[in-house]
Amino acid sequence: MRVAYFSEIFPSTSETWVHNEITELIRLGCDVKVFATWPKPEIKTPENVDLAALTEYRPEGSNLRSTFGWLSLFRPKFLFKLISSLLKDKPTPRHFAQIVRDVLMLGKLLPRIRDFQPEASVCHFAGTRANLGLMLQWIDGTPCVIKSHALDIFHGSALLPTKVKEASRFYTISKYNLGFIRKNHPRVDVNRIQVHPCGVPLAPLPFEPMRDPAIISKPTLLSVGRLVPMKGFDVLIRTSLILTQHKVDHQIIIIGYGPEESRLKDLIRELGVEDTVELLGYKTPTEVHAYLKSSSLFVMPCVWDKKAGTQDGIPVALMESMASGTLVVSTRLSGIPELIENDVSGFLADPEDSHSLFEAIQRGLSLTPQRRIDVLTAARKKIELNHDTKMLTQQLFDDLQKILGAEP
Fold first, then answer.
1. The whole model's pTM is what?
2. 173 and 76, same structural domain?
3. CB-based burial label for 407 (10 Å; 0-12, 13-18, 19+)
């Protein structure tokens, strides 16, 4: 089975679940090609070399092949589908501009896509990638599978009702997302949406809880993610001050990079928590796993980003921590409570509340050895049952076969 993936930046430092899914589809016998709308990024890890080799990057400039690709877009059926969808869904000016941009991009990519002759396309996120996948379905009849995650739902995506109606499959990652779509996008037929979570590969994440955390004089609280407002790193930094005020010895390590870096550094200086909070920047997945193994807690204090109008979906970093045997603390936000059952498989705090986060961290640090093992075991079981990449990709593979009429 030949499967095309649409992407923007690929490989991406933040979308490891897409990388793992592609790797697993290849193991299942699929021929996968990624079509990226951005130039080739800097390859930071050996693991991404093979992924880059699977990728066709955006052609620069124009040539005869691009011209033929653009001419293909003037088919009456495609133009009718596009125009009628625009008239029905009435996209915002920003979304309309995105669609025009993506039509032009598809024209550039189309000759290379046709060289590959995909039997289906998979599009993570319901924005640009889904625009390309759905338009390819309109032009060449290539079945399109779309999976929505977070920003694309919470902030909105162009032609969302049409995508849900016409894509061969439309997934979303959580029941929370399904409810959000039902409430905030009333024109969408939610009966056509299936919940299909993200996952992590279990083989590289053996269940290895820290044997005796009591021997650690200073508990380490690890947090990993892009430095953006919705991750709530500022809440975690403020919580460090509260921990210190309650004479709780600790060290907070934040791994990641992004636009909030300067603001977070200023906050650390302002609160005087330079001795207890470290910003380490980007680390490879292998390096992150090493930090995870030596951490007492993994803390992900997600919040609603009021300015951007979005929030996290279910952070994959939480799944990695739960799989590998590190206690997790997060917030009652989005689909996170579907992953973490409070006081059973981890600990939940109220979003944007440093005192609530402090209390959740305290609960995690004060467990008896047996209670700690019980929580960690429940967390691992949750990942094995619901968030195993191998299982989830097999489900995707089986669904693709159904779509193509080749169900075993």
1. 0.92
2. yes
3. exposed
